[in-house]
Amino acid sequence: MVKRPEISVVMTLYREETNWVKEAIGSVVGMTFNYELIIVLDDKENKELLKLVNEIKNKNKKIKLFINEKRGGAAKARNKAIENSKGKYIAILDGDDVSINNRFEKQYKYLENHKKTDIVFSWVLFIDSEGKEIKKFHPQNTKTADLKNNLFKEHLFVHSSMFGRSVVFKKIRYDPKLLRSQDFDFWVRALAKGYKMKILEKYLTKYRISQVEDYNTRINKVRDWTKYGRILFEKNEKYFQNNKTYKKILFKYKINDKIYSITPNFIIVPFLKVKDKIQK
What we know:
Helix 2 (47-57) links the parallel strand 2 (35-41) and strand 3 (63-67). The protein has helices at 18-29, 47-57, 74-83, 103-113, 147-150, 166-172, 182-192, 215-235, 237-240, 244-254; strands spanning 7-13, 35-41, 63-67, 89-92, 98-99, 119-127, 133-137, 163-165, 197-208, 260-262, 268-273. The protein starts with 6 loop residues before the first strand and ends in a 7-residue tail after the last strand. The strands form 2 sheets. Strands 1, 2, 3, 4, 5, 6, 7, 8 and 9 form a 9-stranded mixed β-sheet that branches. A two-stranded antiparallel sheet has the order 10-11. The chain has 280 residues and is of the alpha/beta class. The model is unreliable at 252-280 (pLDDT under 50). It has 10 helices and 11 strands.
């Protein structure tokens, strides 16, 4: 009888650089725990990535590869990986990011020792396309005591550092209708269901920022994110309806002619103003 893996690592790929993907996979396969790495390739025409993953997969039976016949987007690809996972815990790692310092083992032990916590994140090192460190990201775990308010006040979580009990992922799932803010929407719905989240105050993940965008590119993205941010806000309004911070932002968001920018993880916050007026 095949032993159930302790950890299922979920990785979705589309058009990432092959050297980034190789590094991402390499940061998983050295894990000492019983694990499985589930990869969903969302672009069957990407022969270069397919060749790379197959070469690695042929040397490691713990890697499972699924290839989408038609592109469905990151949310649908993650859901597919989750559906096919068997682990007690599920870890998220994007194909251009890196897990460091025995990340999975440490997050596993944390949840084993903290039964009332369902999802744990980590501190993160932001890196550039060459892997050079840009910035350290170290939010305080104390902020998780009041996430209903603090999620709208500052950036707390990085998706690629997410590690949780499989039951949470299988019950919540990612919403494929949201082309942006899928992770934030997932967290809000998980919180609304009563699941608890914490931050392990250790640098366990590298998050890659591949390029510096010019101003016009940024404005166009903000316009796109604004559309999906509104959907996210309205979709989860019941959970935040008595929240003063939420009401203040939503009022400005719907009524005011100024659109507010976002953190690197697509959370709309009131302190980064975009000067241009954008048609809502």
